[in-house]
Amino acid sequence: MTDIATSSEGWHWAPDGGLVAGIPSKGVIQPPQSVTSSDAMFDVIVIGAGYTGLTATRDLTTSGLKTLLLEGRDRIGGRTWSSNIDGYPYEMGGTWVHWFQPHVYRELSRYGMINELVHSTDYSKRHNYFSFATSSGRRTMSHEEEDELFSRAMQKFVNVDGDFGKTVMPFPFNAYWNKDVLKYADLSVADRIAQIRHDLSEDERHAIESFVLLCSGGTAQNSAFLDFLRWWAAGNYDYRTLLDTIIVFKLKCGQSEFALRFFKEALATRNLSYSFKTAVAKVDSTTDALVRVTTRDGRQFRAKRVICTAPLNVLRKIAFNPPLLAEKREASELKHVNQCVKVHAEIKDPEMRSWSGVTYPNNKLVIGLADGKTPAGYTHCVFFGCDDNHIHADDDIDETLKAVKEFAPMDVNRLVFHNWSKDEFAEGAWVWYRPGMEVKYLDALRRRQNAVLFANSDWAAGGWRSFIDGAIQSGTEAALTVRGELQVGPRATHL
Q1: How do residues 227-253 score in pLDDT, each as one tens digit?
Q2: Which residue range(s) make up the domain with 30?
Q3: pTM of this structure
Q4: What share of the chain is helix, strand, coil (3-state, %, to 5)?
Q5: Nearest 5 degrees, angle CA 171-CA 206-CA 209?
Q6: Do 279 and 304 share a structural domain?
Q7: Residue 280 is assigned to a ligand binding site
Q8: How many domains does the chain have?
Q9: H or E element: which one contains 404?
Q10: Is residue 488 part of an annotated ligand binding site?
Q11: 2 assigned ligand-binding residue
Q12: Statement to judge: residues 205 and 65 lie in one domain
């Protein structure tokens, strides 16, 4: 398919080749290790090479700190990575970015990548419509009618204060500024829909459920309403703006190319050592002066500080001494709800480029949209499923193809996907909390333990928690803390 290195992760299906495990990615690092000895003493060990870990590593190494990056996968990016197949980047996880997301946009500016932003949408082709298949039937509508339906429905959903959420959450980057918002902390999406059911048409209810489940990857019963309210506020309390920020603008070069910029800058400092295919088994921080990190293959590394970026759903897999705070352990065992299924399809009809659709609740994929054009001239579509009516795409490729074709007649040329539910280093996609979970556990998840800091988009501060933006923010903050404690970096000039 390509001369780019192949990751052990991900799946590719084509009619002539069947289902194959492992797909090419620019994010695969070769050679996988640069560290030559476990006797070395590092300033900092960073666990995990997602955007949080990459940002922290870049900021630490450019400040002069000797840093060791440990990653269980064979690639960078964590829950955000692209597979480059026949000249086209298929995004396996995090994809879309926007200038409303300040941390990610700053990094795009830093690396001269603003011109890499492209539209996922293109409404200039013949099949320029939205297909809507629900328990009430199947029909098509214009994209203008689609936006009007979803905007009207979402306004009803979030309008808890008579001001479409603006009063109860005026500062999405300080979500609890108005303490009245806490009254919604235990509310599920299903609970909120029940509150307004008398004011919803069947179309509006289906619009709310399908869109929110696209966001949460869970079920209406286990997905927290508060998480959606924060997304809505970060999207300027407007459906169209929220849509622009979460599913319209992406990088034509692919996210793995963006992630490489962080890694290469760190590498150029000569302060970076790294080891991929290296899962961490234990972190011992019984003293503030020294932390010992033991890998699954028995190697041991030492540092003055550790930044652990393991996602919430797998944090419990690392043995910490002293043990994880009880709240951290409970949260990791409980897990967030997002079991998103994301399937890419290359469709032979180029006129499908202007299509999008919903099939809910009777299909195993909920939302689909045309997302680009491949170099061969075919249409690239991406489909999302959730924990409600869940599917493991790699278990039954015929069932997966059937779910894709439920949206519209499609001649499928290839499928590409990653199974996040089975991923041992994630056990789910981006974070979405259960009702009550955020308020109960968030502070504890952010809390350090001795010389170990915990940084991840799953508990990052700010409106764009669970996004690439939140990951970069969390890595930036952790690195700044460590730099201050180890007394490196710019010092104030006293006049």
Answers
A1: 999 999 999 999 999 999 999 999 999
A2: 25-81+255-334+427-487
A3: 0.96
A4: 35, 25, 45
A5: 40
A6: yes
A7: yes
A8: 2
A9: helix 397-405
A10: no
A11: no
A12: no
